[in-house]
Amino acid sequence: MKKKKTPKGWIKLSEFERLTGMTSRTVALAISKGKIPEKCTKRVGCGATSPIYIDPQAAAVCWYQNLNSNHHLSRTLRSNLSKYIRRFAPDIVGEGEKKNKQETQEKPSFEEALRREKTAKAKTAELELAERERSLISKTSVYNTLFDIGKQIRDALLSIPERVTDDIIASVENRTKVRNIIYDAIAMELEQLSEISKKYE
Q1: What whole-number distance in Å separates Cα of residue 71 and Cα of residue 195?
Q2: DSSP sequence for 111-161
Q3: Boundaries of domain holding 173
Q4: Could you say which of 88, 92, 145, 197 is the most buried, measured as most Cβ atoms within 10 Å of its Cβ?
Q5: Tally of CA atoms within 13 A in the half-sphere of 153 that contains its CB
Q6: Which stretches of the chain score pLDDT less than 50?
């Protein structure tokens, strides 16, 4: 009986395990589940114990591409395979990592989407509660209040000259009286403006 020859470039499973850093059980599972297709493996010999050879590069690429890049259990496998694949086909690994990154950014996992939704709802509820308890004020409300206060201060100060001009003219020769008139007018307006804060409590 003619002895089967080992295909050129193929290696024993044990050598493939060493190159990729995988255990024999992990490789066997990949073959049985079709992650490594049948075309990449071959038993050389007629006996049940005859060694199995594997096309290392084709097997590694197929396995790498058949792994779910979003599954956390696949990360270690993809990492080990990518280190080996970079030796002969770095573009494949580069494209795979780029695609995985894009998919991760564009389409978060269900668990991540659920977590984000819960976080957003919790923050919204917290803000609404704080606003109801008056420990949080909306930005628009603050701006409107400040604008209103500023307008009242402006109007109050601009009204002073009109009110005190006649008194100043009557007391123009008495510096102390002029000073007191202006001072009292300003003090009175400031006293009235101090009541504004109570309006917004």
Answers
A1: 64
A2: HHHHHHHHHHHHHHHHHHHHHHTTSS--HHHHHHHHHHHHHHHHHHHHTHH
A3: 132-199
A4: 92
A5: 10
A6: 1
